[in-house]
Design goal:
The complex is a heterodimer.
Chain A: E1 4-7, E2 10-14, E3 19-25, E4 32-38, E5 44-51, E6 56-59, E7 62-67, E8 72-77, E9 86-93, E10 99-101, E11 105-110
Parallel strand pairs in A: 2-11
Antiparallel strand pairs in A: 1-3, 3-8, 4-5, 4-9, 6-7, 7-8, 9-10, 9-11
Chain B: E1 4-7, E2 10-13, E3 19-25, E4 31-38, E5 42-51, E6 54-57, E7 64-70, E8 73-78, E9 87-94, E10 106-107, E11 111-115
Classes of the chains: A mainly beta, B mainly beta.
Chain lengths: 111, 116
């Protein structure tokens, strides 16, 4: 059974820091991996999608990498801002077309 | 933002009553999904649909049923609500996937359901 784990569960950093969020999955047979952002009381917003054949994707200050063989992905946020404060979720599409989510990392960036 | 609405946004109901949540999309996407989000469990798939009248179970489908009579609407019904079904429910949509299965899912704003 595919399991997705995110570490740390919570993170608090000062504005301007570069930071890394981690996601690991137990079965490397995935089709893709996605990173989402969730603001309190809101739905999920897709940030980046990495296909299984890709190593990384970039969008603005965000960079996501994928190492399928080791079952790991990282989300790198450069020059963090208070507006980046949210919960970040990773999810994998496994041997079906269903997303399996991690429990998220709650990020707080303080001024 | 993808055109996805959920109704109601908040609902309080009593144990044993039936409840129906509605997801409506304006994107004409083929796939629609219902998830629930609970502390410590993350998001878990309840049911999904891959076309009109075509649905399948997800990870936590017991006590739930779904219907999709037209492309834009996907209904989730709690046949007899229980306190364990108190949760936040999210609908999601995605485009028809080709062989590479590359499409992302777009999420609605959620429905907070409380079963007393």
């Amino acid at each position: 059974k595919q399991e997705v784990t995110q570490i740390p569960a919570a993170l608090s950093v000062p504005e301007g820091e570069n930071l890394v969020l981690n996601c690991s999955f137990t079965d490397s047979a995935i089709y893709n991996l996605q990173w989402f952002r969730q603001d309190p009381g809101k739905g999920l917003t897709s940030l980046l999608l990495i296909q299984s054949s890709q190593r990384e994707q970039t969008s603005g200050r965000l960079n996501a990498s994928l190492d399928k063989s080791s079952g790991r992905s990282t989300l790198y946020i450069a020059a963090s801002q208070p507006g980046d404060s949210a919960t970040y979720l990773c999810a994998v599409t496994h041997n079906t077309d269903k997303l399996i989510f991690g429990t998220g990392t709650r990020l707080q960036v303080f001024p | 933002d993808a055109g996805i609405t959920q109704s109601p946004r908040h609902k309080v109901t009593e144990t044993g009553t039936p409840v129906t949540l509605r997801c409506h999309q304006t994107e004409n996407h083929r796939y629609m999904y219902w998830y629930r989000q609970d502390p410590g469990h993350g998001l878990r798939l309840i049911h999904y649909s891959y076309g009109v009248k075509d649905t399948d179970k997800g990870e936590v489908s017991d006590g739930y049923s779904v219907s999709r009579s037209k492309t834009e609407d996907f209904l989730l019904t709690l046949e007899s609500a229980t306190s364990s079904q108190t949760s936040v429910y999210f609908c999601a949509i995605s485009e028809d996937r080709g062989i590479f299965r590359t499409d992302t899912q777009y999420f609605g704003p959620g429905t907070r359901l409380t079963v007393l």
